[in-house]
Write a structure and sequence with these properties.
CATH architecture of the largest domain: 3-Layer(aba) Sandwich
Number of domains: 2
Distance between the termini: 32 Å
Helix content: 40-55%
CATH topology of the largest domain: Rossmann fold
Largest sheet: 4 strands, parallel
Length: 263
Amino acid sequence: MSAPIGTVALFATCINDTLFPETPKAVVRLLERLGCRVDFPLQQSCCGQMFTNTGYFKEAMPSVRNYVGTFERYDYVVGPSGSCIGSGRDQHPMLAERLGDQALQRRVEAIVAKTYDLSEFLVDVLGVTDVGAYFPHTVTYHPTCHSLRVTKVGDRPYRLMQAVRGLTLVELSGADQCCGFGGTFSVKNSDTSVAMGTDKVRNVLDTGAEYIVTGDNSCLMHIGGLLSREKSGVRPIHLAEILARTEADYADSKGHSEAAVTR
């Protein structure tokens, strides 16, 4: 594997920046370990899908313009979120087209062509599945709706986890069924959201796994909250945080390393 020529811009996403900063930090450690130059442009903000999903297309446009202005100068845009990367690739072109701004459309299309979910970037651009990770635990994986149906990461996360030394991956029943989060859906339809999440948690517990893994911290937050209510002991963790761990991390300070992967 040779690192790509150019610079990778980390699109951290607002939920990670505010609630789960260890995830984007893990992305940086991982990509730099693989030889990439990574930059974190400070002017980045929300992808705008909260507005788009609820029909506020006009209100979403400042987010689209900021995204374009922030990331168009980079060679690659990589984010640890199938949902937010999917918004940039699917919703931004639609919004630019609705606006009728052809110049903006061209700029958006240029960014779409170089925007990747983390798992896509590792497998498709860097050409690796074994990233040198070590995680001696039993895990199960929930493929989030947007990662499956919008970003379409396919089996890439599975291939990456299968190459992690020490990791045991247990199949999750009903894996492709929604966890019930759905952004504003969980606010507008809270009872339904909790019911769907409860079904997901039941399937997670049936696996006997120590960790539940996803590529989207929004869904992980929903599942993790319900698991916490159950006092199950199953811990939520983002895929990036697993891939960033190495045997050296555990050898240096096993107690600290165990704490670092526990939310």
